[in-house]
Design a protein that fits this description.
Elements: H1 3-40, H2 51-96, H3 102-123, H4 130-158, H5 161-171, H6 175-198
Helix pairs in contact: 1-2, 1-6, 2-3, 3-4, 4-5, 4-6, 5-6
């Protein structure tokens, strides 16, 4: 097995890992936003500082929450961009090596196109952009299904059942099955990486 395959498997596994981290960080961002609301809201009137201090406190807290959540979401967006870049490179490399995955590469492109269409719909919300957003969501969902199919193809090529199962679950467009599918795919790609790496010629032999 060529070094090209090993690089492709590693790129694909890195992309899957980054996709796994994305919802976790998004959840952290939600918690960062929600916790101050639960901390401040139940406070009795006598525990609140004077009017001006209360206003300053609320403004400061709000700015801190917005800043923290914004920083986390920026990190999430960077991770998503890196994830899809790694996935596309991995699928393309393995496809060139005859290990399947070309469908997954198309899926990555469709997801990105769907996201752009969805953002355009949000920007045009005041002018009937809702339908545009729906179209973008459908395109992205189809792309995500194709990513699952691509993972299944790679798993079939290497005879790895975990990766095949992970690809099937990723192809089912729900949050739970997708997350479990990514976990299985990550573990399966680790097994494939170990197998391909062990068959690489050693230097000096």
């Amino acid at each position: 097995m060529s070094a090209q395959e090993l690089d492709g498997v590693r790129q694909l596994r890195r992309g899957v890992l980054l996709l796994l981290l994305t919802p976790i960080l998004a959840l952290v961002a939600m918690i960062v936003v929600m916790i101050p609301l639960f901390v401040v809201a139940p406070a009795p009137w006598y525990a609140m500082p004077p009017h001006r201090l209360a206003l300053g406190y609320a403004v400061g807290l709000g700015l801190a929450v917005v800043l923290a959540a914004s920083m986390i979401m920026i990190v999430v967006l960077v991770l998503v961009a890196l994830a899809f870049s790694s996935l596309r490179q991995g699928f393309s490399t393995l496809s060139s090596a005859g290990r399947g995955g070309s469908v997954g590469s198309v899926g990555v492109i469709l997801v990105l196109v769907g996201v752009l269409i969805g953002l355009l719909g949000v920007a045009l919300a005041l002018f009937g952009g809702l339908m545009v957003s729906v179209v973008g969501l459908i395109v992205a969902a189809v792309g995500y299904v194709l990513i699952g199919v691509g993972l299944f193809e790679v798993g079939s090529s290497y005879g790895n059942g975990l990766l095949e199962a992970g690809g099937i679950l990723v192809a089912i467009p729900t949050l739970l099955t997708g997350f479990i599918g990514l976990i299985l795919s990550y573990v399966g790609l680790g097994e494939v990486e170990s197998r391909v790496s062990s068959q690489q010629p050693r230097q000096g032999t």
